[in-house]
């Protein structure tokens, strides 16, 4: 099965693809979220994996835009949450004491500033376009740097050795990814599933949104997440993307969706799918 | 009164500042949303104006992050929505027929692709970091370009002349901005106001969110907009930012807020403020 994903290689999105399909051989990075989705839509790929939300920096708006734009034609077939950790990596033979210049993306340099100040007080920092680009540049012998800060995945990808793991200030950062496929039936429930709904309604009546959400809570379905998204055809009005903690095979959710359809202009199911949390993240959460 | 805003000069955020305070003389651009907010927090500025949402590209996550991080210490004191239009501009004396190379940000070049193909079929395009940077480069005689695509504001700012107005494919694009100040009482209602609430609750009970939102609809208060924001201290759990179409001076909203406090872990008012829609946008909406 061919996977399109938000590149470049060696970033956290590639880790998400590996988590979903450890033995996938055909994984192709695309430069933007719309480009990865277009690769899926045009039929050349079976899945597109793109980031939905990071626990520190919030939603990824282009992904919401794609979900809304292609509702009814694309379907979410899985979500996976992975921990986002930064590692210091260098060429084989480089010791921590040798590191004078560290290259990474500004966001990662910011997240790892304290660690670098403590362990590499005399090192300069150099900016790259992405953490993967930093690792690639180091591996390619590009700029005169000794070490890169990137996802652990990048070390394996670019033949570098990890000098220090988990050097970011936030040890609990994580990113949620969605896997998309072209339309079709949902897989059966796995026991830990979510459903994403797209609700479109004129907001002139105060109770519309709470009325339709009430159909869920009345049937013991939890709203896990909700986002407004601007309607392109109606200024100042919104779609609502809602994630609930149940598979559509759960009778309470199916009933609620039927009832909700009565109260709104349109309601699309964007998919019922397994909600996968990486074992490492799960373990930390249990330990917290 | 000193205004900090998301720069550079000549962008739509500067237009928003002008709309809020036409005669403001001390307006200072900052390179990022957090930097503009920090300028306000540190006491050197009375207001910070930052983008909240664009009708095409969705929310601006760093702005949501700042609203959540500083809840209780900062207050929204106004929102303003302005139309986002692109203009082709050049140095005095340049005619449309002279234009061979057009410089702008890739997003603006994409939005204006059709117009350029029709009116400047032989022109090349050159990429800049922002639309304002494109106008500045042209005005400064930088790269060998003849015209820039930018906000109309940029023409005045950089001494350029507009050759063509409103050349983007989407004529109804708009951006909403928030004006922030340090904590203090809200201004009285203007007749067209909004209130932003930050709700934090454990999502284990299915009805919590719909229960609290129901307190609003029961009192004829409309939910205009709602966004989940990840809680930094509780993995997989969320804050909810809710905008309603009323001032807190409206008794129904004040009552609803009191009732909502009973059902959640915490509820902060981020401000009750005038909701300003630029006259141009308003006129187009009425005509639509």
UniProtKB/TrEMBL annotation, chains A, B:
Catalytic activity: prephenate + H(+) = 3-phenylpyruvate + CO2 + H2O
Pathway as given in its UniProt record: Amino-acid biosynthesis; L-phenylalanine biosynthesis; phenylpyruvate from prephenate: step 1/1
Keywords of the record: Amino-acid biosynthesis, Aromatic amino acid biosynthesis, Lyase, Phenylalanine biosynthesis
Domain ACT: 197-274
Gene Ontology molecular functions: prephenate dehydratase activity
InterPro entries: ACT-like_dom_sf, ACT_dom, Chor_mutase/pphenate_deHydtase, Preph_deHydtase
EC class name: lyase
Record field: transmembrane: none
Residue ranges annotated for the Prephenate dehydratase domain, each copy included: 2-182
Catalytic activity, EC: 4.2.1.51
Pfam families according to UniProt: PDT
Protein name: Prephenate dehydratase
Species for this entry: Streptomyces tanashiensis
Gene: pheA
